[in-house]
Amino acid sequence: MFSIIRPFLFNLDPETAHDLAIKSLKFNPLPNKMFEVEDEQILNIKLLGKNFPNPIGLAAGFDKSAEAYNSLLKLGFGFVEVGTVTPLKQYGNPKPRVFRLEDDKALINRLGFNNDGMEKIKSRIISHKKKGILGINIGPNKETKDQKNDFCLGLKFFFDIADYITVNISSPNTDGLRDFHDQEKLVDLIEALNKIKKDNKTDIPLLLKISPDINNSHIPEISEAAIKNNISAIILTNTTNGNRDNLISKLRREEGGLSGDPLNQISTSMIKKFYKELNNKIPIIGVGGVNSGKSAYEKILAGASLLQLYTGFIYRGPSTAKDIKKELIQILKSEGISNIKDVIGKNS
Ligand SMILES: Cc1cc2nc3c(=O)[nH]c(=O)nc-3n(C[C@H](O)[C@H](O)[C@H](O)COP(=O)(O)O)c2cc1C
């Protein structure tokens, strides 16, 4: 079915196609049964105090303003992360700001945190009871004078309605944001967030989303800061500013973050490095170029306990989660593995 409508969708500007997808998802009448797979229990995994039905999550950025998360869960994703949400509504960068690099199975985006702002998004989530695991990804407004304070506002606002909060320090399209990868600045931020948790007597898991463009020397520093300050999981990785030279698409020099196939190996290698450094003290969520059972399996072998994807969903369509789950189950069965948790990090 998707192969029939894909040429029509791909004829539209990527952002128009995305808005259309969100609108149709809001009214998704398809029955749950259509997206179920056999033997999904092989993929069940317990993490962050939750039972994930499967490890394939939808990454932040697709449902930025929490308009369609229940429909997305219905498509078979094991969890959905909405956002990035900023304290105030913002438009983001001028259009065009999303580019499809079809020949590279990639996207470049410089959206710049367009979203409806936390008030509207919170009331939307309250009025649409979540039917699965929902993460909320938070970040600062472009015009803010105090990025740390914006993160604090996000946590205060959402800790009571999310299953976890992602602290997004890694988008390439907000000036100064990636400076939070410096250890001193990072510790200062996490300490402020932990104080909010303490003051509000909440145990909400805090996750840290990292850029693939950091220096290797940052890996031990970030790991140490995360372990010492009780971060619950690390998400590896956001989009990259680099790796343009090997691309073949016309649009490869567009400014913004690159995602999809060309990010796959970069993020998998970062997962391996962090897996060694974290020494099983903090789990990893792997994201970047996951678009098949094979690419999902490779990231799990590298050390990821859960996965997320965005670009793969654009190219494979509504059955992406279902198809990847089927492919992954087949791989696990062929290797005689009875649960996904038994292979996490086996290649690192
Ligand atoms: C159009 C677009 C918008 C995105 N917006 C966000 C965002 O708001 N917050 C965030 O943390 N990541 C965002 N991302 C990054 C994704 O969550 C993910 O980390 C990245 O795309 C790599 O995964 P993929 O190769 O499966 O797409 C965005 C990605 C794309 C393609």
Short description:
This protein is α/β, with parallel strands linked by helices. The chain has eleven helices and 13 strands. The strands form three sheets. It has an eight-stranded parallel β-barrel, surrounded by four helices. It has a three-stranded antiparallel beta sheet with strand order 5-6-11.
Secondary structure elements and their pairing?
Blueprint: H1 2-11, H2 14-26, E1 45-47, E2 50-52, E3 56-58, H3 69-74, E4 79-85, E5 98-101, E6 106-109, H4 118-127, E7 133-138, H5 147-158, E8 164-168, H6 183-199, E9 206-210, H7 218-228, E10 233-236, E11 257-260, H8 261-278, E12 284-287, H9 293-302, E13 304-309, H10 311-316, H11 320-334
Parallel strand pairs: 3-4, 3-13, 4-7, 7-8, 8-9, 9-10, 10-12, 12-13
Antiparallel strand pairs: 1-2, 5-6, 6-11
The structure holds flavin mononucleotide (FMN).
The site of flavin mononucleotide has 28 residues, from strand 4, strand 6, strand 11 and helix 10.
